[in-house]
Specification:
By secondary structure, the chain is mainly β. The protein has no helices and 24 strands. It has two domains: 106 residues, Jelly Rolls (Sandwich), CATH 2.60.120.10; 87 residues, Jelly Rolls (Sandwich). It is 0% helix and 52% strand. The relative contact order is 0.18.
């Protein structure tokens, strides 16, 4: 493999990845495996979106996070110097944050690295099981805010769509990424199930529908202009 790679890195291309059928690959740390959904730049130091799986007792050595780190704990308990983070915990660690992550019992994580540059970002920790839902956009759609700051383009939240909710066609001016956490939904571009990751380019129009109801991680507003990494 070359020192620099581009894996689903073009923000102008619609990408749909069903992580449940992807194989696990080894990471540099023993006991930690990964499924890379998007990667741009150096193989082990690029801008990357992944699902990680920690075996029980596995750990990474102390390391910094240039351009920040975002984590959503999908299963198990993830731990670092800030404490234990059970399933449903959301973390945003700003540029320069250092930690030595581990998992005593094992866990799975959705992780984004090197995607939050700039000093002064707020460090965030949200336990979704304790966070309130607020009405969002249309009847039957609810939101748990995760991160938004006016000086930065991206905003993240968890969206809950009740079964049968009618969502009108929307235009995604700044693009959008989704990870299906529970349930299923579909639109004119495809059908999505738990573990499906979707990246819609800026300007995409879609009409989401769900018969079962669903819960989604959503990141929006960040795909208008994505700088190159490692060039």
């Amino acid at each position: 493999m070359s020192d620099h790679v581009s894996l689903r890195a073009d923000p102008c291309v619609l990408e749909i990845v069903h992580t449940d059928v992807m194989p696990w690959s080894a990471s540099p740390s023993p006991g930690v495996e990964r499924k890379r959904l998007s990667l741009s730049g150096p193989v082990e130091a690029g801008r990357v979106t992944s699902v990680l799986r920690y075996a029980a007792g596995s750990r990474f050595p102390l390391h910094p996070h240039p351009d920040g780190e975002e984590i959503l704990v999908l299963r198990g308990v993830f731990s670092d110097e800030r404490g234990d983070h059970p399933a449903g915990t959301y973390l945003l660690n700003p540029e320069g944050y250092c930690h030595a992550p581990r998992s005593d019992a094992g866990c799975e994580l959705f992780v984004k690295l090197r995607q939050y540059p700039g000093p002064g970002r707020t460090q965030v920790r949200v336990e979704l099981r304790q966070a309130a839902w607020e009405p969002y956009a249309v009847a039957g759609v609810w939101r748990q805010p995760l991160y938004a700051e006016p000086e930065h383009p991206e905003a993240m939240h968890v969206l809950r769509v009740d079964a049968g909710a009618e969502i009108p066609t929307v235009t995604l001016d700044g693009g959008e990424e989704l990870l299906v956490l529970e349930g299923t939904f579909h639109d004119e571009h495809g059908a999505y199930r738990p573990g499906s990751w979707v990246r819609y380019p800026a300007g995409t129009r879609h009409t989401p529908r769900t018969t079962t109801g669903c819960r989604l991680y959503v990141k929006k507003g960040h795909l208008g202009a994505v700088p190159a990494v490692g060039m």
